[in-house]
Amino acid sequence: MGRSTPGDRAFTIGNTLLLALFAFLCAYPLWYILILSVNEGTDTSLGGIYWWPRAFTLDNYRVMLSDHTILGAFWITVKRTVIGTFGSLLVTSMVAFALSRRELPGRKLLLFVFLFVMLFSGGLIPYYIQLMNLNLLNSFWVYVFPSLFSIWNMFVMKTSFQSNIPENVVESVKLDGGGYTRIYFNIVLPFSMPLFAALGLFTAVGQWNDWFTGAFFVNDLSLQPLPTYLQRMLSTIEATHMISASQMATANQTQLYNPDAITTKSVRMATIMITILPILFVYPFVQRFFVKGVLIGSVKE
Fold first, then answer.
1. Can you tell me where the transmembrane regions are (predicted)?
2. Domains of the chain
């Protein structure tokens, strides 16, 4: 390799600065919310806080965690994310494996139907009527059952199975007397773990951030997930709706925090951080699967 020219060096420096600026613009809003969540609310209202908390406190988190409604919403979100993610990967991958087998009767017709349904939705009202007929409205399972199958993920998995599952291995299992169930669990799953990790993360993020289902299909406040609770909080103006009177009384009695230092804005920031951080901690554990999972199917033998 020859020595780099001044133009190459200038491009490298400019590219580095541009990417650094982009990374800063992506990370700073999260950092800003964090410092506001650990700063006294009355001090925050004075302005001038940009980089570090000026009056550090954890009272905002104490206020938020003293509300049993928030804790219940948090566990609803955790349960729907775990059950929904694993259930979706299992059901979707089974359908994808079946459609990846060319000997499946009616395979082309089924693929056309799935593609048509993915491109042309029936709309919100028919969807609501269907959930009502299935008795899923105002139920925890409205978060799980409708999301068990993803057509988009099915097409991704089907393409991966066709490209990366060696046909000679499948045939050898058949010669040994193994059926499709054994092929799926002994061959498909081990070969596709990077793909499942990548799609599983996207599915989990979608489950965790979904506020729409809880807002429109669930009336029971005890069944609403954390994003729906946060959406209601951010869309409400009155302070009494942000921090309930009973919560304030309980916190004052137990001396959980200094009420003069708490504002609705500071509690909002703490709630946003609690909503973001759990799913953010998942990324480092599956990051190593991303490149391999995304590139699966792009290289053929």
1. 12-34, 73-97, 109-128, 140-157, 183-205, 267-286
2. 6-66+243-285 (no CATH), 68-220 (1.10.3720.10)
